[in-house]
Give the backbone structure.
Amino acid sequence: MAEAVATTPILRDVEDFLAWAETRPERWQYVEGRLVTRTGTSDPHNFPTVSTIPALGKRLEGSPCGPHGPDRGVRTSPASDR
């Protein structure tokens, strides 16, 4: 289960979070103004992900889209990046 960080830095918005997260060795989410640690994946989850990314990249060739790995954050609301 994810836990909030013990010493919370002052982050005003998602942009502050993204700048801060780039300096951290751990993986983080910013959920409605709260920092939450992210855990790694299991092998049963990781195998399909690793297999799908190259196939998706090939399928999207020539389009403006491209695949991203599991460490890519997604803005799910103005106050959250997961």
Helices lie at 14-21, 43-59. The chain has one domain: 14-81. The mean pLDDT is 83.
